[in-house]
Amino acid sequence: MEHEEQKRIWEEEHKAPLVLLQMDSDKVSSSVEEFFLWLKSKRSDLTKVIGVEMCCGKGRNTNWLAKQGIHMSGLDFSQTAIKVAKERAEKDSITQAQFFVHDVTESWPFKDESQDFVLDCFGSTDIESGELRQKARAEMLRVLKPGGYIFLYLLSTEDEFHKEMIEKNPAHDANAFYHIQTGKYEKTFSEEEVKNLFPTLKVLEVKRIKKLAEFFGKSYNCQHFWVVLEKQV
Ligand SMILES: C[S@@+](CC[C@H](N)C(=O)[O-])C[C@H]1O[C@@H](n2cnc3c(N)ncnc32)[C@H](O)[C@@H]1O
Predict the structure, then answer these.
(1) pLDDT at 228 over 80
(2) Whose CA is nearest to atom 4 of ligand 1?
(3) Which of 64, 86, 97, 168 is most deeply packed, by most CB within 10 A?
């Protein structure tokens, strides 16, 4: 699949949400709320914390974290999504969030070791090749301060809806599929894959979040990965 095609499909999805209705919401992901509580237990003054969300979509997480006092940036390659994210920030008088139309598989607009954390909430899940996911991971590591955290929230191979999709319409690489309606690529991760994503980082937390998620009016069991990693000082 071509990168430009995945980008085009996302632009359409952001303009007229069809498959991933959750991504249109302005309600923060419960996974990010949980990460925030975790972070609060580690850092006493959150107003000094600088974070970035890769693949931030319409900014539900980036804006919410900025509201809590963190200096946030959000990156997404969709012009439509970033426009909405900025409008939502303005409407809620959020001044500590900045947004960039940016492809996360290219060099990020931040200095080396400038961020206290990097958030990946269903971002890697949507990058359509192993090589490009590796490029994004290299940038996550480059911009992260020593002692900083990477938070990952990822689809898993145990997620019911996605399992069904992989059986019906598998993609070119492991544990991934193309959406039947839109052709959009999506990847789930096995435990083994998650373990090998960032071999140089210390694993602080790995949990499975069991919940129900709705797709096309039907509820499915999910067991997403909730992971926090630390870059060594
Ligand atoms: C599943 S959504 C998650 C959005 C957001 N993190 C949230 O939780 O609401 C995935 C997002 O990744 C973006 N995306 C996919 N590939 C990208 C890339 N290479 N660079 C930047 N954004 C990308 C899409 O536009 C989409 O907004």
Answers:
(1) yes
(2) 57
(3) 97
Which domains does the chain possess? 3-19+29-230 (3.40.50.150)
DSSP assignment of 74-89, as one string? EEES-HHHHHHHHHHH
Is the Cβ atom of 49 under 6 angstroms away from ligand 1? no
* Integer-rounded Cα radius of gyration of the chain: 17
* Helix boundaries (H) for 42-146: 60-67, 79-91, 130-143
> Phi, psi (5° rounding) for residue 65?
-65, -35
Q: Provide the whole-model pTM.
A: 0.96
Q: First vs last Cα of the chain: how many Å apart? A: 38
Q: Which two tokens stand for residue 27?
A: 């309600």
Structure tokens given for 213: 């998620």
Look up residue 194 and give its amino acid: V
In tens, the pLDDT along 82-141 reads 999 999 999 999 999 999 999 999 999 999 999 999 999 999 999 999 999 999 999 999
